[in-house]
Amino acid sequence: MQDTGIPSWRIFALSDSGNLMPEPSAPRTAPPGRAGSSGPPATFPSSRVGGGSSYMEEMYFAWLENPQSVHKSWDSFFRKASEEASYGLAQPRPPSVVPESRPAASGRTKTSKLVEDHLIRGHHVAQLDPLGILDADLDSFVPSDLITTIDKLAFYDLQEADLDKEFQLPTTTFIGGSEHTLSLREIIRRLESTYCQHIGLEFMFINDVEQCQWIRQKFETPGVIPSILALLSPSRFEDFLARKWSSEKRFGLEGCEVMIPALKTIIDKSSEMGIENVILGMPHRGRLNVLANVIRKDLEQIFCQFDPKLEAGSGDVKYHLGMYHERINRVTNRNITLSLVANPSHLEAVDPVVQGKTKAEQFYRGDAQGKKVMSILVHGDAAFAGQGVVYETFHLSDLPSYTTNGTVHVVVNNQIGFTTDPRMARSSPYPTDVARVVNAPIFHVNADDPEAVIYVCSVAAEWRNTFNKDVVVDLVCYRRRGHNEMDEPMFTQPLMYKQIHRQVPVLKKYADKLIAEGTVTLQEFEEEIAKYDRICEEAYGRSKDKKILHIKHWLDSPWPGFFNVDGEPKSMTCPATGIPEDVLTHIGEVASSVPLEDFKIHTGLSRILRGREDMTRKRTVDWALAEYMAFGSLLKEGIHVRLSGQDVERGTFSHRHHVLHDQEVDRRTCVPMNHLWPDQAPYTVCNSSLSEYGVLGFELGYAMASPNALVLWEAQFGDFHNTAQCIIDQFISTGQAKWVRHNGIVLLLPHGMEGMGPEHSSARPERFLQMSNDDSDAYPAFTQDFEVRQLYDCNWIVILLPFRKPLIIFTPKSLLRHPEAKSSFDQWYQVWTSFQRVIPEDGAAVRAPEQVQRLIFCTGKVYYDLVKERSNQGLDEQVAITRLEQISPFPFDLIKQEAEKYPGAELVWCQEEHKNMGYYDYISPRFMTILGRARPIWYVGRDPAAAPATGNRNTHLVSLKKFLDTAFNLQAFDGKTF
Hints:
alpha/beta
């Protein structure tokens, strides 16, 4: 081998047949018809084996003269080679194309490499931009082996005379059909036609040969499905809206009208393969068009939302609303159910919600393989690349308790994000690169080629059904108007929008093509336009009827039989929830056992199970056993329970242990809760990925599917819910107000100030209380159904009720093992047979309430600190302590009773949280509404602070002692005014 001064392993990277490392890309010029290229034209002189003048030598000498004259990948390559040569090696000389010691590659090897290079990098030269001004991969350089036919010949050490010679085709390719040899000219033509035209394929990173070959066969031997009518309705729908409501925001689909036939193709093809239920999620762009032409919502229902007099029909703008519709699929003549999930302006926030709803629908149908229920997610290019929840959602796709067996992702690639150029919005070549983390194939397609789009979508639907894996369709398009119809895009993208203004709409472009081919006549085309326009005009006339406006038309998940026909609860009563003692005992016994034989558990866990057995025998329960009994009793009644989150199987604080692990057999587990009764409902407890945003969204969607299930998400620490704040703010707190969306999701948020630092203390109850919708100044009328009516009117809480509300529970940490934090069986089935909104004082102070000097109201863990301090100071008769178990909605009636019970007592609110956090700002005005200024309630707790807790243990204990001293200093408030 000649001494090039470059390590031998690098020389193989320069050969025409070696592939130890990808060769750097040379400056690329556009293939014929590709616009927007930059950089000097590349020429490829014929390479000669054994050295001599070659293209690579020219590159090398050019680099020596000016490193900036070559592409950055070559600059990096030559720079590294020179650095390595400096370690005692000979002065580097220009490397040859192949090492002298190796013979020139055979024709078959060259052909294999030619095919391989198109497979791997053909998408870089595909003509994807309908405007012809941008490169979809943000790079104006083309790989050196994919520029022009002449360049290809030089790169592979071939001559122009070889173009008409027959070459043996690799056995892995399908471009030859039944032929085993083709001329080199035809091989190049077919490869370019497949991989370098209006479809760009990224799939060779998939590490499954069968899957790669499946994709190759689909695209190397393709067919097309032309359809003019599929494009007509979305285009004319947008034109109609623009004529009628020119000054209204519509977030229209102009520039990507092909998305409608794309979605319809995916749905139709999936229906052919047995899918009965499709759940869609999408941002606002094109939503009205999807409602009209994919879901087939009545047009008058859409048009009436533009009437400002009828806007009271929903709590959100029309392009955020959802829909549920059962209909016949016209292509397959089969029943199909379509749901479009409501979504806020937070774009990708709906992604995990759709996945959770899909998973639930599959679960309730027994569809373990996803052959009946599937999801489709529509994305924008900037959001797909920029929103982290997209990545979180992808990472749920193959997890056993979260997989939906494949999702079809459709990216509406506007090549702009609001006003931001994609070159300033992402670092990856494509907006879709995040999908590569799960080996999802990515099909880029020029959205101005409807036939290519329809074929790609058909293949995507087949892929999902065949392999049960995600797939991405990237519709490279443009946005004809600004971010919305009122926005001026020329401020920031003048050159792009000059081209867009000249761009012929895809409907006209495609219609002209079909008319020229004789597929349709001009008269037939115009008649179809007139027909659709008449349909829109007639619906517009009907839209003025106020009777058509009803909330039921915008539900994305109706619960048949759960509500009355008008959407109201069937009753406003709260049934008793007590559990018979024999049921409690049975659940306790199972909770303390290992139902499987020959199952070896950890010795430490054996002590925990013995502790449960001892509590059951003594008829007491701590928090963990109480949770076990609550879940178990629901399972007995046929209620499915699902608990999800980080480390929930064991529990963050090693208290739950709902999944037992065999200490000697890998992955052998046991869930005793699923062994309670032969005909019980299933219990699902599953550790999640290390995600809050994605997983909480998933569980919210799961809870959306059915009212007859208990779905819980637990944060590892309550503090961490802030990473999922978008789901809490946009879906949980406001979902019913915006979208008439009842939901029974439960959030378990471990909370408590225990000296563990600012990130492991507070679940931020003040944030939830701030978002609660009960009025602090409105004194309610205490009617017979006040308790239930108050719950129905609020925006979150849930117990066993004829409606569903989200529930936020601030769960304990140290109280999990506190000896006083236990309850008796008696309280479960005799005393407390319904939720206790307030737990009054039951000690010595109750015997002479008129003698009580101070009544302390509190909630949570601080109660046990107060009880201990009261006992230490001997103030059991002078101080009463009342606990608020339901903070919001505020229990006005019971608080009033408690305050009146102790007429001579000062009222104190005590909390362990800082004054500007926790509950004080919420409860204070409500106490004033009940009692007025004549009887104030004083604050006792920590001073205001920026951080929720200290990280210093001693500081924590000092501040605890300080506010406890204040709480029981009966002279503390003398002489002060409210």
